[in-house]
Design brief:
Blueprint (H helix, E strand, L loop, with lengths): L2 H31 L10 H8 L2 H17 L4 H12 L1 H25 L2 H8 L2 H10 L2 H10 L5 H9 L5 H24 L6 H24 L1 H8 L1
Length: about 230
């Protein structure tokens, strides 16, 4: 497969993945705001145990975001719920804290506990990931988070069994999460704010963040393919 064909395949796959998630969550926004299905979709638990409980609710949300992100639950949904519970700005911040901590938990688990299992499962791919990340752990983590294709949790545990230091990888990942976290928190906040312009802004931001991620991916595409495929 030529480099151009591979770039096209990667970009289409990433955009489809993101737009599918946006479409699903957009449908959720519609059902909650216009179709009277809030009870069917069970937002009452979030209202009762997160939104209305102050600092305790914040800690509950961040704790759940950490756990579910660490085990592979889509961080887009986590940040959507953060936007719903706390609004765009605080939801983005708390979602990023939770997903960053989830990344750290998966990384540390792999490094301290699951090394033998992960090595058996992924084999030679670990060496390719090590070679990619070791060049500059912060920048390389930022690259693969800006243009996410592969499994978030798989990337975290693979990085955990490499030789790279933990802190640059976790910080790079957390910063790299921000663009899409912001988009989906903005989408989630639209449940409580009846604003079509806000939904349009979320879609525009998603497109811009994807284009930025694709530019970074092109710079490192040969090495990044070993991580995301």
């Amino acid at each position: 497969m030529s480099a151009l064909q591979n770039e096209s395949r990667v970009s289409i796959k990433a955009m489809l993945k993101g737009f599918t998630m946006l479409a699903v969550l957009g449908a959720v926004v519609y059902l909650l705001r216009y179709a009277g299905l809030a009870e069917a979709l069970d937002t009452h638990w979030i209202d009762a145990h997160v939104r209305s409980r102050g600092l305790v609710g914040v800690l509950i949300y961040v704790g759940l975001a950490t756990f579910f992100s660490a085990v592979g639950f889509p961080r887009q949904v986590i940040c959507f719920l953060g936007g719903y519970a706390y609004g765009f700005a605080l939801g983005s911040l708390l979602g990023t804290v939770g997903t960053g901590l989830g990344c750290a938990c998966a990384f540390i688990y792999a490094r301290l506990v699951g090394r033998s299992f992960i090595t058996r499962k992924f084999g030679r791919r670990i060496q390719k990931v090590d070679e990619f990340l070791s060049r500059s752990p912060f920048n390389m983590a930022l690259t693969i988070r800006f243009f996410p294709l592969g499994s978030n949790v798989a990337t975290n545990v693979l990085a955990g069994v490499t030789s790279i230091p933990a802190l640059p990888f976790i910080l790079g990942s957390s910063v790299g999460y921000v663009p899409q976290n912001v988009v989906f928190a903005l989408f989630g906040s639209g449940v409580n704010v009846s604003s079509t312009a806000q939904m349009i802004l979320a879609v525009v931001l998603f497109v811009l963040s994807s284009l930025l991620g694709f530019r970074i991916y092109r710079k490192y595409r040969n090495q990044a393919d070993a991580v995301v495929e």
